[in-house]
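Me: I'm a chemist; would you kindly supply a protein sequence with its structure tokens?

Assistant:
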Amino acid sequence: MDLAVGATRRVVMMTLLTKDGRLKRVPECALPLTGVHCMSRVVSGLAVIDVGPALAADGGARVVETDGASHRELEVVLGPKLGSAAG
């Protein structure tokens, strides 16, 4: 059963880094996928990040909340363009 079909919001809970500190995100997946570009939020120990095509102006990702890391520190780890939620 494909859990991504029909859901209006998909939240992924994961660690963003490997044990040796490398980013887990890959440019292309080698495994078969059941849902492509279907996440709306990523929750990790570093931050809560909204993702998706609606956030294209923010590089496709917007930091909602962090756990002790600054926005700049997250950009160093995750990539150079992260939007920031208002507030």
